[in-house]
Amino acid sequence: MIDKLKEMNKHLQDISTWLKFDTIPWVIAGPCSAETEKQTISTAKELANCPNVKVFRAGIWKPRTRPNSFEGVGDVGLKWLKSVKEQTSLLTSTEVANTKHVELCLKNNVDILWIGARTTVNPFIVQEIADALRGVDIPVLVKNPVNPDIGLWLGAIERLYQAGIKKLAVIHRGFSAYEEMEYRNKPYWEIPIELERLLPKLPLICDPSHMGGDSRFIEPISQMAIDFGIKALMIETHIEPEKALSDSKQQITPKKLIEIIKGLRIRDSVPTDAELKAKIAHLRASISRIDSRLIQDIADRMKCVEELGELKLQNKIPVLQLDRWETILKDHMDKAQEKGLEGEFIKALFELIHAQAVKKQL
Ligand code: PEP
Ligand code: MN
Fold first, then answer.
1. Alpha carbon of 248 to those of 58, 182, 253: distances in Å?
2. Domains, the chain, ranges and CATH?
């Protein structure tokens, strides 16, 4: 698998060959759905005034959770995207979820296609889309699957790559979770970060609109993405968000988008000052030293666990003693809080260590 990824990373086409951008962030913006010709074109014209916006987005076929909601204007929207291209400098993009969508987009010269979160989960459909794109030179953006599964995300990227698509990028829009939370979708930042580690040439785009699910989260999530080093954002924008036929709560006006982009703190400098460089190197060395110590401590802990396991076996004592585990966990969480660490973080860490320790004793 690693060799396959290395090969893929080598042959992916650098983004500079298919998108010219001179700003950080560069932005894909436009309504969740194209609703009318006027709404589509007037949104695009306002967005074209913002130098960061390079690509216009508008859903034409909409995957809705419940039936009888607005499911997109359908084919007629493609004409409106054509008008956007004629009347602005923006590239156009829309979501494709089957072969028919792909064919219609290609016939109507849509510049960039994206695969939605509900499609990435389905290898059959992704394969059909990839087959319909075989031999076509078009950029494709792959949204993360609805569920937090990096394998499905990678699988979709590989299917497109194997069909000859070399202009690829990914969109992180968060993942479904059953628990109640502020955001519509949980970020699990570690997943796109791992994807970047595996495929560093694959551009990563953050979609704060679908992640937050509310216009008030667009600014903080965008800032978080920038702080992570992400260079691109996809943001849903509507001339009258309150009247939008889909995702009304999370859309913002083009004016608001421009204001948010202007307010972002950009981190794009490479340290050149010698003193700063030395400070960073020193801190990194300390972190590496602490990490080595942590690994050694965990190894020592496991040795004790193994000996304990032997003793329990010889004396017919069960491996798991839940009351002791609960006391330890509570104690660790209290200690963590005293040291200013999040209790939940320490809990998750010790649950992992404990699971490994139990395994060692079986
Ligand atoms: C969208 O971009 O409008 C959309 C449906 O997104 P997602 O696939 O991320 O839910
Ligand atoms: Mn949407």
1. 14, 17, 11
2. 2-263 (3.20.20.70), 274-361 (1.20.59.10)
